[in-house]
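Appendix B. Chain record.
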Amino acid sequence: MSVQLKSEKRTYTLRRRAEQQAETRRRIVEAAVDLHGSIGPALTTFSMVAERAGVQRHTLYAHFPDERSLYLACSGLAIERDPPPDADPWRAIEDQHERWRVGLRAIYGWYERNAALTACVLRDAESHALVREIVELRLGPPMAACREVLGAKLGAKQRAVLQLALSFFTWRTLVREGGLKPGAAVEAMVQAIDCAK
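Structure tokens predicted for this chain:
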């Protein structure tokens, strides 16, 4: 066999191995995201993730040596699939009430699409330090941008009501538990912010 053929075969073998490892990693991360959205990250064990992904625990540990590395991968995939709303374009909306409406519609739409995962993760963030750290890392900056853009020129009371309006739990209470249509929930919060002057 020529040196060139041996080199090509080795390159093909390495490429194929890298593809298999990437596929295994993807299965592990998707399994973890599914579990985090059903039972929550705090209750998800490495054994459960390995079983759902169809891999051995040692394979999981080879890709993710600790919970933090797995949580970062899971949250990264979830954010990549459906990023939180970008508040920057809302700056161009001059009418403050319309800016609130546009922003809250976008945020409430994101909550609707990610309700199960968000509920489990935020619940666990209350008592699990690592989950709290990852939530702050992934959701802290975009939510701070939303507060900053929507809260421009608001007094303390209005900013407090805006904070309430931006909460996932407010959305869940209004829409899922209270039965309001998303548009009605947005209008209720716009009115509440306006009345808090």
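Further analysis of this model is presented in Appendix C.
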